[in-house]
Amino acid sequence: MLIEPGRMTLAQWRDVRDGTPVELDPKTAPQIAESAQAVERILAAKEPVYGINTGFGKLATVRIADDDLAALQRNIVLSHAAGVGDPMPVPVARLMMGLKLASLARGASGVRPETVALLLAMLQRNLVPVVPAQGSVGASGDLAPLAHMTAAMLGVGEVFVGGNRVPAEKALSAAGLEPLELGPKEGLALLNGTQFSAAYALHALIEAERLYRTALLSGILSTEAAKGSDVPFDQRIHALRGHAGQIETAAALRMLMQGSEIRASHRTGDIRVQDPYCLRCQPQVMGAVLDLLRQAAATVTAEANGVSDNPLIFADTDEALSGGNFHAQPVAFAADMIALALCEIGNLSERRIAMLVDPALSGLPAFLTPKPGLNSGFMIPQVTAAALVAENRQRATPASVDSIPTSANQEDHVSMAAHGARRLAAMAANVDAILGIELLAGAQGCDFHEGLAASAPVDAARAALRAAVPMLQDDRHMAPDIETAISIVRSGALIASLDLPGLAE
């Protein structure tokens, strides 16, 4: 896959994350070289330029002698590699490397071609730095995480190789690579930027799109189990309101329910006038989720294609302009949007599970067991889903409105994008489990409608579930069933062949 700086799509970033072999667009070579040459010309002018021949942050007024410029860049990397906590997951760290590579290759960062080449080579050889995930406040760049990434390029710290943690110097040598000796500005260019926060946000968007689509299927499965109506999905209702996500979601729900014998069985003689909101308002809630995710995707994709270090090098005029592109407020806001969307996908799903286990609402046996009382059936899986929803509600508290001054008040407003984006992986994992439980509950409910087929997509999903998890007749160890359902949700297999709305619409 070709990394084309400034033109990458969400699907391409997914490929980078998932380990697809990458190459850098060769058209970037002249602009990278010219940017590095501009730094040399700026240095030759002997004027103080932030980050090139001065200290950093609050120490920007300290002029650095020419003989110390190489040490200056190495020092900033080692001193800033001060992260703590568990390491980034390898796929997200790969994504961070790809984002930094694309940013540097725009030719506005002043790094040399050999520096870009080393980062590309590490990505190609799956030498993924061990990067502690805590320590960034999302302003002046994701400094600590990116410092750990850069330290590995210097042969300091560790990298993941085939799942094992290996000293960076040893891993580079085994791959036939030399540790990097930093040139002027290069340490700062590698450390400044939002690539840590943006990588987590992109990862969450990829997962959220899958979860949105899966929730459409699980929602219709539950609708079929409860003998719900498809009237609320009528296109005329949604056209009158005019929200694009709602209209597309309703169309998808109609498609998923088309041809259902279960639905046909109660078109006449059904005394219920309206279904509960968890069924009836799926287009409105999930459509709003889709609109929100698309807005977040537009922000994060723009960020991923931009340049966010400082100062920026303009080779046509030999200028180094100091600004604030490293401030991750756009990513922080987008992360909060994704958090809200993930929270609502889980909220609505859990309400459908609760509806299904309640015979007064669903018309099904209590807790979806053929022998209530002797058996508890889906009583506690619903409690588990409720617990996960509560966790996600707590995690959905906005991170973007927080700030804490750093660097002796030089960096007096920060975005907290790193926190906002990093929490999303755990939230998505919770939604995986909630949807897995709903799929099991919905399939169990449909099993009570023996002799009536659901729609083709729903019956295909039921068959896939039942191939792995049999109908619950008598109580059994539930955790393995739930773990199997979670694995199925994460695989995306149930929705792979379905034409459902997504973030690229």
Automatic annotation (TrEMBL):
Q: Where is this cross-link: 5-imidazolinone (Ala-Gly)?
A: A139-G141
Location(s) in or outside the cell: Cytoplasm
A Gene Ontology BP annotation from the UniProt entry: L-histidine catabolic process to glutamate and formate
What family does the database annotate?
Answer: Belongs to the PAL/histidase family.
| Record keywords, A-Z | Cytoplasm, Histidine metabolism, Lyase
Entries under PROSITE patterns matching the protein: PAL_HISTIDASE (PS00488)
User: What are the EC numbers?
Assistant: 4.3.1.3
Q: What is this protein called?
A: Histidine ammonia-lyase
Entry-linked PANTHER family: HISTIDINE AMMONIA-LYASE (PTHR10362)
Q: Which InterPro entries match?
A: Aromatic_Lyase, Fumarase/histidase_N, HutH, L-Aspartase-like, Phe/His_NH3-lyase_AS
| Post-translational modification as stated in the protein's UniProt record | Contains an active site 4-methylidene-imidazol-5-one (MIO), which is formed autocatalytically by cyclization and dehydration of residues Ala-Ser-Gly.
What residues bear 2,3-didehydroalanine (Ser) in this entry? S140
Question: Pathway, per UniProt?
Answer: Amino-acid degradation; L-histidine degradation into L-glutamate; N-formimidoyl-L-glutamate from L-histidine: step 1/3
